[in-house]
């Protein structure tokens, strides 16, 4: 759906990497609570539709005004491979490692 080399996957932050950074700054974070998300296209975008048609039909459809595709909606998935959502909570001082605070 996107041209080759559009993304540099080495620059993507993996869930365990962001969890480590958050935890090292005093946040409580559990990647088991993270959820994946992916786009859910209601209809094929016009460019994909046109590529899939034979040349004769492309010529006939070229004169027809096609509607502009709507932005993708996202749905939840179990995969954290591409897009994911997560949350963290700032730990109270009594929950932090090495805390000397006594209640």
Output the radius of gyration: 23 Å
Q: Low-confidence parts, pLDDT < 50 over ≥5 residues?
A: 99-103
Mean pLDDT: 77
Which strand order do you get reading across the main beta sheet? 3-2-4
SSE-based structural type: alpha+beta
Number of helices: 3
Question: Helix share of residues?
Answer: 10-25%
CA-based shape: elongated
Largest sheet, strands/sense/barrel: 3 strands, antiparallel
The total domain count is 1
Order of SSEs, N→C? HEEHHEEE
What's the layout of helices and strands?
Blueprint: H1 15-24, E1 27-29, E2 35-40, H2 46-51, H3 55-62, E3 73-77, E4 83-85, E5 88-90
Antiparallel strand pairs: 1-5, 2-3, 2-4
Condensed summary:
The chain has 103 residues and is an alpha+beta fold. The protein has helices at residues 15-24, 46-51, 55-62, and strands at 27-29, 35-40, 73-77, 83-85, 88-90.
Describe this structure in words.
This protein has one domain (11-89). It has helices spanning 15-24, 46-51, 55-62; strands at residues 27-29, 35-40, 73-77, 83-85, 88-90. It is built from 3 helices and 5 strands; from the N terminus they run αββααβββ. Helices cover 23% and strands 19% of the residues. The strands form 2 sheets. A 3-stranded antiparallel sheet has the order 3-2-4, with no helix packed on it. A two-stranded antiparallel sheet has the order 1-5.
């Amino acid at each position: 759906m996107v041209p080759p080399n559009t993304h540099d996957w080495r620059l993507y932050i993996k869930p365990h990497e962001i969890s480590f950074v958050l935890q090292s700054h005093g946040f409580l974070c559990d990647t088991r609570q993270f959820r994946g998300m992916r786009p859910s296209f209601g209809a094929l975008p016009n460019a994909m539709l046109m590529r899939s048609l034979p040349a004769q039909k492309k010529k006939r459809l070229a004169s027809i005004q096609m509607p502009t595709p709507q932005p993708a909606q996202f749905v939840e998935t179990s995969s954290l491979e591409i897009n994911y959502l997560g949350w963290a909570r700032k730990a109270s001082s009594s929950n932090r490692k090495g805390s000397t605070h006594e209640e």
